[in-house]
Model the fold of this input.
Amino acid sequence: MEYCLDGLTVKEHLLRLAENGRKAFTEKLNPGVEHILGIRIPDLRRLAARIAKTDWENYLETADTFYMEERMLQGMALGCIRPDADLDTYLHRVTKFVWIINSWSVCDTFKFGGGRRFVNMHRDRLWEYLKEWMHAGGEYEVRFGVVQAMENFIDEDHIHELLKCLDAVCHEGYYVKMAVAWALSVCFVKFPDITMDYLRRNSLDNFTYNKALQKITESYRVDVQVKQQIRAMKRPAVAAR
Done:
């Protein structure tokens, strides 16, 4: 039976929320992605929170993926529910969500249910889980692993291995490269000396490396003199043959 909330299907709720959305703006942010409603993120999160208080299992089992926001909502719902007592059951739900990601927006709005407490309780297992995604084949699968590792594992226990994982990411997707660059900039802010040492002896492609430097220089948490040093590390563009 299709999941309903207040007598309306989820799609009907989304279409109502879209009336106050920003369709054109959202489409510009997600070039090439089809079927965008342009619903504002806070509105989607409120709907996800309401779903999480009802028969959310039925919702996840029957949820559609036609609109980008339908995919996004599933990830948000997974972040609002209390994770299953069996960790593997919850991670299986997360995996099914990762398989339907079709944009950076869908990817980046996901958060693990239970928040920081959940992540800390299952730290070792979640780290291994995200490392698997960082070596997956799909562009958004890899981005998911990189973004979630950035959100949850830039700490003293993982910084060295995380930098090795980022260096080993091998995918030509634009949104993978941008995620790696973003993650490296956050690594630099939190662990400048360790990350600087890595940047001096990495094996990144020129685009990802230079984009990481750019993002570091854009951070208000990096000293002006350090930014000048970072700019001087930029690799020259390779002329097309």
